[in-house]
Amino acid sequence: MTRHDRPLILSLFEMGSVVHLSPGTWTHPEDRRHGVDSLSFWRELGGILEQGRFDQLFLADVVGAYDSAEDGLRSPVSQGYQIPALDPLILLGALAESTDHLGLAATFSTTYEPPFAFARRLATLDALSEGRIAWNVVTSYLKNAAQNFGLPDQVQHDTRYEIADEFLDVVYKLLLGSWDSDAVLGDTQTRTWADPDKVRYIDHKGRHFSVRGPHLVAPSPQRLPVIFQAGSSLTGMAFAGRHAEVVFLGGNSPEAIRANVETIKSHAAASGRDPDQLRFLAAAQVIVAPTEEQAHAKAAEIDRCRSDWAALQKNGRIPGLERYPHEELVADIIRRRDPGHEILIRGWREGQRVKDLRGSAGAGGRARNGLRVVGTGAQAADALTHWAHESGLDGFNIGNQISFGTIRDFVELVVPVLQRRGLARTEYTPGQTLRERLLGAGPGPHSTHPSSRYLDPSNLKLPAAPFGARLTPA
Amino acid sequence: MTRHDRPLILSLFEMGSVVHLSPGTWTHPEDRRHGVDSLSFWRELGGILEQGRFDQLFLADVVGAYDSAEDGLRSPVSQGYQIPALDPLILLGALAESTDHLGLAATFSTTYEPPFAFARRLATLDALSEGRIAWNVVTSYLKNAAQNFGLPDQVQHDTRYEIADEFLDVVYKLLLGSWDSDAVLGDTQTRTWADPDKVRYIDHKGRHFSVRGPHLVAPSPQRLPVIFQAGSSLTGMAFAGRHAEVVFLGGNSPEAIRANVETIKSHAAASGRDPDQLRFLAAAQVIVAPTEEQAHAKAAEIDRCRSDWAALQKNGRIPGLERYPHEELVADIIRRRDPGHEILIRGWREGQRVKDLRGSAGAGGRARNGLRVVGTGAQAADALTHWAHESGLDGFNIGNQISFGTIRDFVELVVPVLQRRGLARTEYTPGQTLRERLLGAGPGPHSTHPSSRYLDPSNLKLPAAPFGARLTPA
Question: Cα(A40)–Cα(A130) distance, rounded to whole angstroms?
């Protein structure tokens, strides 16, 4: 059940914004987030992560403001709460150039933009990065996002997932079905760049999209960038089971996480996939120092810089959170697992400094949403390993508390311990794609992943699969 | 009238495709376009251009295949004719990282994607590159492009420009009206990231778009990337007069170009703009060597590698060109100035090796579509200067004939001559934005440009300007 025989997946959870999940910590004297819109910020961060042999940088995203509280834009703008926020696909283009091995994951919503253009950007990134790209599929949850794309309000939750299913189907057809892997010849003798018998229209006509093709990018190293997903509503977990290769889970205890892991694996199996071809990450906040005392002092200093979200919320000024009365919050976390809500709750809970409610993370660890560890490098390594063991997790999506202090500490103090224990890689494997590194198999999607059907172009002619149906051929 | 007192604008016209405008030259033994989907290709190209102190790299784009001939995809795919083609916005993200001073222009169509997401990508690029971005506004012309975005056929020509006007209006509102230039405070004492009184919704409701805002990116160095445009239909020239800061002109002679320059300037004046705030480029093909004989030998070798488009066209296999009977072509070039058609014609004429029909470009120069020069560096410098003088051009958009041979020759043999004559810069000015370099004024759009009205946020409340109307406030 545990995967202690192989390295933990190490991911940094980030965003092109001054505040991702730790409001106010940009005021810490050592914090560097004033430079978040400069290439030097991302270049330095990428260098730290490659020094620590991280698997990936995982960029969150929203396409609107958290303006649903009474004061509208005032709180998110004054706090810098996920606004301004740089476009993650553009950031990945720059990071592809400034890093050599790091996996690069961007969040992109299937609800508002056309799949043809996105598929091209995704494939362009995978080609340029030589196979280091992942796509975190989201469906968006902010009313303001809908209003930025011509809609009066959010698309209803289940309809968003229906659109997402079809959006993914279009992307699969374009990236795997439109060009054969050996279509490009580049033959100077016959003066043939590509074999026209191996390139075709997809002629997708579905309920939400009509896309002729052909795809505009030749097959990239992974064909399809690795599919990430973070949905933990019932619909979201079924969706993850159908599509996701890496799942970013919520959950306040190892037991809660294990339940989600098992649910998603059973969804994967039910849709014909090999459940061993999924990987699971949870959030972790890790504050480490050479001694435990120093770590706690550091954590206390960071906490002093956090915005007092409780007070803001009392005044009705936390964007979106007026929907969450304090006493209902915990039940709500467990009941509703929409990723958007979880992110809000995570930020809020952090700010509230609520007592831990369930579980414990071992030495130095406390469970909030995901894992919070304060201690030495060895204690953090113990806690991460313990949580992974207890929950069936494959790794962690680690948040920056201050930039770049906490992640640099992690690289300098935790990674070497994990490396000594054989739980973190000491070198990258040259030429390995992100999927090969994360899943231990080939560069392209697994044969049981629903995208793989389109490697046989005759499957392009099948009618579009209905929402939620098995996507693998009968 | 002439601008010999200031450097010529030097631009490289490129595309993320094995073939941009010179079909078949990828078969040349020295050509490097096999690597067009690798970062090392673009890094090396950027380095050559910065060595030559070029103003910019200008990326063309299409969002569909040239499949309107009888054989559909066969000819464009086998020739690699603008397919595959990498996404230019992603390429610019990588180039922002691999270059330091080069201007970076991407083509993007206003017809198929939502303006909110594009505005964010554009502003992200401008922020990360520290103000080196330009946007070449196009409306698309391929039927296949429309089919990739859910439409049965092209949007009608004038409607495309109507959409483009509104798309630009939305982009202007987001980039100039939504955030005041001094909105971001980053004040650790008051714990205020941005002043909420200086950030606002745009609440755009027009015929084609409804966009609430706020814009998601804080003001970038240029606020609005430099607006390029290449339309030379009657509608396109009026559009250029309203919006464009740099116009890429067709025309087979200095006189024809001068007429277009004057037409567009008069459109600019009629819409309240300062016509001196526009710059004009034409295409140039430059093949140079230390001696004239070597240059002609080089040109002959390149021409031998070109695809025989005449024969292909005879067989009805040049995509799109079946609409252009040979005998009507010249009249058609003059009559119809749709940029899409011009690009097709340019490729076709090159392949046909037609005799020059009008005008001459001075020593070593011959007029095709734009200028073709074969000769020594001094002869090329003479021809470029002569054409700029005769036509009122500010500079040239130079095509790669073989990569990177011809552009490296240009940098090594033509640029030093222009530099000695004071017609090319010898150093970049550190910290200068692209707009400052091209237009010699401030980093933001000129006060008479229609975007500038939104620096006064009260103008956000005005009704959307009707198509073709003056956009400056009364």
Answer: 22
Report the C-alpha gap between A53 and A428 in whole angstroms: 7
Residue range B90-119, pLDDT digits in tens: 999 999 999 999 999 999 999 999 999 999
* Of A468, A405, A471, nearest in space to A235 by CA: A468
Q: Cite the beta strand spans of A199-290 per DSSP E.
A: 204-205, 210-211, 226-229, 246-249, 279-288
Rounded to whole angstroms, the Cα distance separating B378 from B382 reads: 6
- Chain B residue with minimal CA distance to A218? B84
Tell me the nearest-neighbour CA distance from B34 into chain A, angstroms.
7
Token pair for A379 = 């204690």
Contact between B409 and B23 (Cβ < 8 Å): no
Query: What pTM, to 2 d.p., does this model score?
Result: 0.90
Helix A88-98 × helix B88-98 angle, to 10°: 40
User: CA angle, corner B119, sides to B114 and B122, nearest 5?
Assistant: 125
User: What is the C-alpha separation between A276 and A446, in angstroms, rounded?
Assistant: 10
**Six-digit token string for B354:** 């037609």
- Ordered domains of chain A (ranges, CATH): 9-311+372-461 (3.20.20.30)
How much is the ipTM here?
0.90
Size of interface A-B (CB pairs under 8 A): 241
Hey, what are A329's tokens?
Answer: 């919050």
- For the stretch A142-156, pLDDT in tens is 899 999 999 999 898
Minimal CA–CA distance to B460: which of B200, B193, B257? B200
Given a contact cutoff of 8 angstroms between Cβ atoms, the answer to whether B21 and B343 are in contact is yes
Q: Under DSSP, is residue A103 helix (H, G, I), strand (E, B) or coil?
A: strand
Comparing alpha-carbon positions, the chain A residue that sits nearest to B118 is A87
- Minimal-distance CA residue of chain A relative to B80: A193
CA-CA distance, B119 to B114, in Å (whole number)? Answer: 9
Of B90, B144, B214, the CB nearest to A89: B90
Count of beta carbons in the 10 Å neighbourhood of residue B16: 26
Q: Determine the Cα–Cα distance for residues B313 and B171; give it in Å rounded to an integer.
A: 40
Residues 83-102 of A with CB under 8 A from B: 83-87, 89-98
Most distant pair of Cα atoms in chain B: their distance: 74
- The tens digit of pLDDT for each residue in A269-315 reads 999 999 999 999 999 999 999 999 999 999 999 989 987 654 454 44
In this predicted structure, what is the pLDDT of residue B402? 93
Other CB atoms within 10 A of residue B156 CB: 9
Among B97, B148, B307, select the one facing A39 at the smallest CB separation. B97
For residue A339, give both structure tokens: 């990723």
